[in-house]
Amino acid sequence: MDIESIIGEVEAILFKKILSMTAKQRREILGRVKEKLIEALPKAAKKQKIVILYYIGLTKIELARISSAEERRKLLEESLEHFRKALRVAEQLNDLTMIEKIEHGIGISLRELASMARSAEERRKLLEESLDHEKAALKVAEQLNDLSMIEKIEHGIGVSLWKLASMARSAEERRRLLEESLEHFRRSLGVALELGDILVLVYCTSNISLVYKGFVVEFGEVSDESISGVLSHFNNSLQYLRRFGRYDLLASFLVSFSEFLYTVGDFGGVDPLRNIRSAIEHLEEAEGYYRKWGVSVPLYVVVRLGFYRGVLREYEGYFEEASSILIDLADKIRDEDPDFSVFCRLRGYLDAIRGLLIAGRLKEARDVIDRVLGEFSDVSVAREYVLPILSYIRVIRDVVGGDILYMDYDLDGAVEAYERAYNNTGRMEVSLYGIYRVMAERLRDFLRVFIRAKILSARVPRVPSPLDLDGVYRAHIEGKRLWENVASVVDDLIGRRIVHGFEERLLLAAKYKALAFSYVRLGDAYRVRGDKSLAIKEYSSAIELFRRALEHLMGVLADIVGCHIRFLEALIALLRGDEPVDRVVKMFNDVADCYEGLGLSKHALFSRGFARFARGELSELDIISVSGLASIDSDPVLPTLDAISTESNKYVLYSYQDYFVLVSLRGIERLSVRELQGVLGKCTRLVDVNKFASNVLLIVYKWDVIEVVDNLPVKIKLDSFVIELDFDPDLRVHINKLRGLPKNFVVIGNYDPLDRKFYVMQILIGPVDRLEMMMPRGL
Hints:
The chain is an alpha+beta fold. 68% of the residues lie in helices and 7% in strands. It has 29 helices and nine strands. It has helices at residues 3-15, 23-40, 46-64, 69-93, 96-114, 120-144, 147-165, 171-195, 198-219, 224-244, 247-266, 272-293, 299-315, 319-332, 338-358, 362-375, 386-407, 411-425, 434-458, 469-495, 501-528, 532-550, 555-576, 581-597, 601-614, 620-627, 673-679, 689-695, 768-774, and strands at 652-656, 659-664, 667-672, 697-702, 705-709, 714-716, 721-723, 745-752, 757-765. The strands form three sheets. Strands 5-4-9-8 form a four-stranded mixed sheet. Strands 1-2-3 form a three-stranded antiparallel sheet. A two-stranded antiparallel ribbon has the order 6-7. A hairpin with a 2-residue loop joins β1 (652-656) and β2. α22 runs antiparallel to α23. The chain is elongated.
C-alpha cells in the first residue's frame, strides 16, 4: 500500500470509525494504526512526513485516553514530541494548513498533560502554554478561513480558559476567564451549527453548561433562576450526547453533571435530598457507560459515588451509618487522595457527633468533638470546605458545653458558654469563594441567630429574689415576655430559609416550645394570683403547643416535652379539684419519675413538690425553694445542631415471631427480618460479649409496677444476640396499640461512633403506652 493510501485509511479511522468503538476495539485498531504509520515514516516524502508525524501524535492522544495514568503520561509526552517534529518541518515548508492542525494538536497534548500535573503551578504553566499554541493555530485558521479548524480551535481555547479559571488567583480573574471561555465556546458552536458538525456541537453544548455551572459554583450565584438555567443547559447537552452515542463523552459529562447537583444540594443548600439523590443516579449511569465503553470505572467516580451515598444517608438522618460509610471511604483513599480522605473523615466524625446530639447524649458528643479537634489540630488541607467545618465544630463545642450546663441548671455558666460560642462565630473561616463561601456564611448566619435564641432562653428568670409571691409573679410575667422574644427570633430564623426540610421542622418545634413556655409562665402568673380558671386556660394552650412541637421531635427532646405535657395535665387536675388527691399526687410523682429518668433532677423535685403541695405539706414558695425552679422551662429549647434529620431515631422496636413492628407516636410500621437488618445492623455487631453480658438489664413494666430482673436469660453468639424470655399472659391485655400482638421488647444500647462498636445496655418489656412514655426513643 502506498503512503497516500495509508494516510487516507488512517484519516478514516481517526475521524470516523473509532467514534463508535469500545475502548478495547479502539486500543486494538489504534495500535495497528500507530505501527503502520511508524513503518511508513522512513519511506515518506518530506511533506508526507509532516502528515504522518501529526497522525502519530493524534493516535497517541487517543491511546492515552484509554490507558492507565502512568502509560497515559508517557503517550502524551510522546505525542507532543511527534507534533513538535512535524511543526518544525511544516514551518520549513511554510505549510499553513498543517501548521494550524499541528499547533492545535500541541494545544491538546499540553492540556491533557495539565490534568495530570503534580502541582498547581505545573498545571497552570501547561494550560497557558496550551492556550498560546491554540491561539497561534487560530490565527492561521482565520487567515485560511478554514471553518472546520476554526470551530475545533475555538473550542480548544474555551476548554483551556475554563480550566485556567478554576485556578485563578482572584475572583475578578476567575470571572474574566469564564466569560472569555464562554465567548469562545459560543463562537465554536456558531460555526458547528453552520457546518452541521454534530461532534463539535455536542462538545460545545456540554462545555457551555459547565461554564454556567462555574458561575454558580465559583461565584455563589445560587438562585432558582441561575440553577434552573444551568440544569436547562445540562439537560439539552445530555440529549445531544445520548443521540450521538459516544459512551466516553456521556460518562464524562454525567460525572460533571453529578458534581454540580451534589454541590448545589450540599454546599448551596438547594433541595439537598433531591439533588444528592439525582447526583447519585447520574454517577451510577456514568458507571454503566464506562463499562459499555469497555474501560474500568475511574477511581474518582468510584470515590465520589461512595461519598455521595454517605452524604445522602446523613441527610436522611442515618448518622451512624453515614459516619461509618465516610470513615471507611477515608481509610480506603488515604494514599490515593489524601486531601479528600481528610474531608471524608472529618465529615464522618461530624455525623457521629450529630447522632449523639440528636439522641441527647451531650457529654459523649463533647468528648467526640474534643477528640476530633485534637486529631485535626494541625491539619493543612487545600480543599475549600475543610476549614469551615472545623470552625463550625469549634463553635458547636461551646454550644454543647452550654447545653450541658443548662441541663445541669447552671444557667449563668450556660449563658457564658453560649456567648463565647456567639463571639467565636465571628472567627469562623469564611475566607473562601463562590458556593463554598455561601455554605460558610450560611452556617455562620444560622449559628448567630440560633445561639442568640439560646442565650435569651437561658436568661428567663428562675428563682426570684427576694422570694415572695409578688417577686414570683413578676418573674413569671418577665418569663412570658422573654419566651415570646425567643419564639420571635426562631421565627425570624425560619423566615430566612437558611435551613430546609427536617432542619426547618426542628426550628418549628423550638418555636412551638418557646410559645408553650410563654403560656406556661402566664398560667403560672395567674395561678400565683389565685385565678385558677385563667391559669387552666393558659396551661391548656401550652399543652396544644407542646403537642405541635412533638410532631417534629424525637429522642430525648421529645421525651422532655412529653414530661412537660404530663406535668401540666397534673397541674390542671390539681386546679380543677375534681380528682381525688391521691390520684393527683400520683400523677405528679409519676411525672417526677419521668423527669428523673431524663436527668432533670430539679424538675423531678419541682414535680414532687407539687405532689406535697396537693397534700398541703408545702407552699408555692416552699416548692421553689426546695427545687430551685419557679417553672418547668429550664431545659434547652433548641436542639444543638443545624443539620439534624432522622428516620432512625424516632421508633420503638418490637418483635413478634417472624416480623418486627416499629411503634412510635407517628404510627405503626412492619418490617421483615431482612429489612430490619438495615435498621438494627449496629445491634448485631457485638464485639465485646463480656461487656454485653455484664451490663444488660431487663426492666419489665406492668401497669405501674416496675420489676428489674437480674438473671436475664440471654443466649449470646459472637456476631449476634438471641433473647429468650417468658412473657406474662396478662401483658397481652395491655397491648392494644399493637393490635393484640403478645410480644414486645426494646433493646437500648450505647454506640461509640469513632470505634463503631455497639453495646446493649437494657432490654425493656411491657405495655406499649408505658414504653412510649418512659423509654428513650433514640436507639
